[in-house]
Amino acid sequence: MGKWDQETALGLKRRARKINRELAELYPYAHAELDFRNPFELLVATVLSAQTTDVRVNAITPALFARFPTPLAMAQAPIMEVEELIRTTGFFRAKAANLLALANRLVDEYDGVVPGSVEALVTLPGVGRKTANVVLGNAFGVPGITVDTHFIRLARRFGWTDSMDPVRIESDVAALFERRDWTMVSHRVVFHGRRICHAKKPACGACPIAHLCPAYGDGEVDPVKAAKLLKYELAPGQEELLAKMLADSAQAAQYRQESQAEDRRDAAETGRTLRTGTGK
Ligand code: SF4
Question: Which CATH superfamily is domain 39-139 in?
Answer without folding.
Answer: Hypothetical protein; domain 2 (1.10.340.30)
